[in-house]
Amino acid sequence: MTIGLLGAMVEEIEPLLEFFKDYECIEYAENRFYIAKYKEHKIVIAYSKIGKVYATLTATVMIERFKVETILFSGVAGAISKDLKIGDLIVAKALCQHDLDITAFGHPYGFVPEGQVCYKTDSKLVNIAKSVAKDKGIILKEGIIATGDQFVADTKRKEWVGKIFEADALEMEGGAVAVVAHSLKVPFLILRSISDAADMDAGFDFDDFLKSSATVSAEFLICIVDKLIEKN
Ligand code: 4EZ
Q1: Residue 120: which CATH number?
Q2: Structure pTM?
Q3: What domain count does the chain have?
Q4: Number of CB atoms found within 10 A of residue 99's CB
Q5: Among 60, 57, 92, 86, which residue's Cα sits nearest to residue 73?
Q6: Which atom of ligand 1 is nearest to the CA of 173?
Q7: Which residue is catalytic, options 11, 173, 196, 205?
Q8: Of 37, 52, 110, 112, most Cβ neighbours within 10 A?
Q9: Closest ligand 1 atom, CA of 152?
């Protein structure tokens, strides 16, 4: 099968490129797509750049141009839930867009006509992630991830996102990938390791923990790829 591995920042895919080693690089849509062969399967790796627009573009290109049959996202996130600490892993059971707001017309936050507030991830992929966690004795939280085009470094804002969307973590791409993959009927999974608590210290913590948390997420994602391949 053909598997797409996506991150937002170069730091989020570097551990993947190191692991899959021999790859070919194809330039497309002002981005680079790294194609590797792994156990007779094709792996397409890219980082989108930060934010929903770039994530939408890259996820779409992965599916339409590179024909990936599943999308697995790996990266870091800010914690909302108090039981998520720096370095902890969360897999999304659903994603939403916390900055989408036409409430002036009586719609709920995160909703536009013909869309949905929450996009669910593929339950088979979530189960694979859970079984990897179980095998390795790693704690993996399953929760809601809220996406928006803002780096949240504000306790009030993060608490609002937590309350309105029942979200456990927040980042800037997952909800966009969810819309693309849902619309094009490609199973997808969003995995994140916590880099900060989206509070006053978030900027500093993010700089300090981006690399280590991105590596935690990428290494776990590789185990998911192995399990997925076993089943296909
Ligand atoms: C976006 N990513 C952060 C990119 C920040 C700075 C150069 C994840 C993330 C995040 N997003 C980690 N912590 C976050 C937070 N507190 N708010 C939003 O996906 C780039």
Answers
A1: 3.40.50.1580
A2: 0.98
A3: 1
A4: 17
A5: 92
A6: 19
A7: 196
A8: 110
A9: 17
